[in-house]
Amino acid sequence: MRKVLQVLAAGVLVATCAAAAGAEERVVPESRAEVMFSYAPVVAEVAPAVVNVYAKRTVLERPSSPFFNDPLFRQFFGGGFLDQPRERMQSSLGSGVMVADGIVVTNNHVIKDADEIKVALADKREFEAEILLKDERTDLAVLKVRGEHKGLPVIEFGNSDDLQVGDLVLAIGNPFGVGQTVTSGIVSALARTQVGISDYQFFIQTDAAINPGNSGGALVDMKGRLIGLNTAIFTRGGGSNGIGFAIPVNMVRIVAESAITGRPVVRPWLGARLQSVTADIAETLGLERPTGALVVKVDPASPGAEAGLKPGDLIVSIDGGAIEDPDSFGYRLATKSVGGRVNLEVIRNQARVVLDLALKPAPETVPRAEVTIDSRSPFAGMTAVNLSPAVAEEFDITGAEGGVVVTGVAPRSPAQQIGLQKGDVLVEINGTEISSTEVLQKAAAERARIWRFAVMRDGRVLRMAVSG
Question: What are phi and psi of 301, to 5 degrees?
């Protein structure tokens, strides 16, 4: 019995000590600032630089009604009149961020095909804006405020490479057009690459509430620095489910600087074909887990070849930034400026090798020689250019060694009807290898009852046949 009492006494003593220790950790706030803990100072600093973006575009619509198919109705009102398309103004609403004097960065999809753009500040001032630069590959656009303006607020750039999962962030924008709104959350994940928003699959994921209208708005850290541009949400019903995605500010900075300086967006070129590492490949290479970008092929005239890159090399980092897959490599390379150099770390024969890579643009080895097909063929309405490393880089084409690149397809044209898309590589028509736009014009001018052609799309060759 005495032993039981001793054990109980010891337990009480331990519990008392633990309670005392816990009490020591709980302290009374020592200042008004601690009592009034709030995000308000950060919001007050950055919110004025977040703007609303209003875009208007003219769209053609054909009227539809069950009466229009009635023969008597059409005879009375005139069928031709009923079939004429009507012009209608379509409006879209998004957000933007002022990153320099009168310079606003937003998403390309917010202002796509816009005829008129207005920017509204938090203080109710409104300005017309013009497009300085549109970059479809990153889904970014840069606007410039028109007219005289003084004292426009500007936000400071942060460094998205310094972010860690769990960091506090604020999302600021104009969801559903209700007005400027601030939501808080954390960085849920980094380097999300399977989002499908732009060519550069590398996003910051956050649980800060993001809704339609937030696109182009600011994702900021607790020091009031821009660390991302809110772009998309994962949703099943149209509202926020706590899974939002933002373009890292390091990519935003590159596009903004190009627009401000008036230079086109030119990205460094590696000149190598990369593939993801599977579990089987990782085991073969002696890796603990599948990671990195595996080099499949190297262009002998590329910066990669000059640096000593070889097929079979596994790229694991660039200037210390980890490479998880080809998408993350493409992002990290695209955030580097042409003209410099970077250290490329690769695993070769289970040994780590550091290569010195010169950051050069992809060359235009042949003239583009753009043509638009207007002959009576299934390819009428298609615009194409000759394939070169520069064109392949511009349209994110991999694996193509010949053919011409489709750069545009006219609406309701024969080319659109047969399924041609921007970025396709047309490689063959009725047995003729399409090696240039000149060959394309001659092949499209022929007459045929059946047209057989092959295009490369997303690395795969598709073969199709249509009637003449």
Answer: -105, 20
How far is residue 59's CA from residue 38's CA, in Å, rounded to a whole number? 45
Q: Tell me if residue 276 is catalytic.
A: no
Catalytic choice (92, 135, 139, 240): 139
Catalytic (active site) residue 325 = no
Mean pLDDT within 111-136: 90
Does 244 have pLDDT greater than 80? yes
238 pLDDT band, cuts 50/70/90, is: low
Instruction: Produce one character per residue of 82-101: b if its CB has 16 or more CB atoms within 10 Å, e if not.
Output: beeeeeeeeebbbbbbbbbe
Catalytic residue among 215, 302, 317, 413: 215
Amino acid making up residue 55:
A
* Length of the chain, in residues: 468
Q: Is 139 a catalytic residue?
A: yes
- H/E run at residue 440: helix 437-444
Rounded to whole angstroms, how far apart are CA atoms 14 and 17? 5
Within 8 A by CB and 6+ apart from 309, the residues are 270, 272, 295, 298, 344, 346, 355, 357
Active-site option among 92, 109, 160, 328: 109
Residue among 408, 451, 411, 449 nearest 428 (CA): 451
Instruction: Report all structural domains of the chain as residue ranges with CATH numbers, in order of start.
Output: 45-145 (2.40.10.10), 156-261 (2.40.10.10), 272-358 (2.30.42.10), 371-467 (2.30.42.10)
> Considering the entire predicted model, what is its pTM?
0.77
